[in-house]
Amino acid sequence: MENQMKRGLLDVCVLAAIKDEDSYGYRIIKDMSPYVEISESTLYPILRRLESGQLLSVRSEEFNGRLRKYYHITPEGLKRIESFKEEWKEIMMIYEFVTRKKPAKDETGAEADTEQAEEGKKDE
After folding, report:
1. What is the C-alpha to C-alpha distance for residues 111 and 117, in angstroms, rounded to an integer?
2. Residue pair 26/47 in contact by the 8 Å Cβ criterion
3. pLDDT digits (tens, 9 = 90+) for 10-21
4. Among 2, 13, 96, 121, which one is most buried in terms of CB atoms within 10 A?
5. How many CB atoms within 10 Å of residue 56?
6. 110 has pLDDT over 60
7. Assign residue 97 a region: left if phi > 0, alpha if psi is -120 to 50, beta otherwise?
8. How high is the pLDDT of residue 4?
């Protein structure tokens, strides 16, 4: 997959991982792991980029004697998820075009309507 596209997808995945509740790095990786593989060396630059873009905010809390950063999605981050959903519809239409089957040809060599061609096969 093209790096730029994957980067955008991972950004949205990270936002989705914290959409319902604040979370921290290790937990984000664990929550994403059934769907996408991401390492700490990939995650933390994404978190910094999303923070600088004001798509998430960060707070530190003590946990077992050390500080843990918790990430919280902002209204802008929620908007980014929604715009991704709209963009994805267009991507799926492009995918359908790219993976479409070649149209069937009729006896004259012209492209036949696929539904009519299928119905014609049933009638035979």
Report:
1. 10
2. no
3. 999 999 999 999
4. 13
5. 23
6. yes
7. alpha
8. 72
CA distances from 96 to 3, 5, 6, 22, 117 (A): 22, 18, 20, 36, 20
Q: Which domains does the chain have, with CATH numbers?
A: 3-100 (1.10.10.10)
Cα separation, 29 vs 9, in Å, equals: 15
**Cα→Cα distances 101→75, 95, 96, 116, Å:** 41, 12, 9, 15
CB atoms within 10 A of CB 31: 16
User: Apex CA 84: angle with CA 101 and CA 57, to 5°?
Assistant: 155
Whether the CB-CB separation of 104 and 112 falls below 8 Å is answered with yes
Positive or negative, the CA dihedral 59, 61, 66, 71 is negative
**CA 26, CA 47: separation in Å to the nearest integer?**
12
What number of other Cβ atoms are within 10 A of residue 86's Cβ?
Answer: 8
Three-state DSSP class for 58? Answer: strand
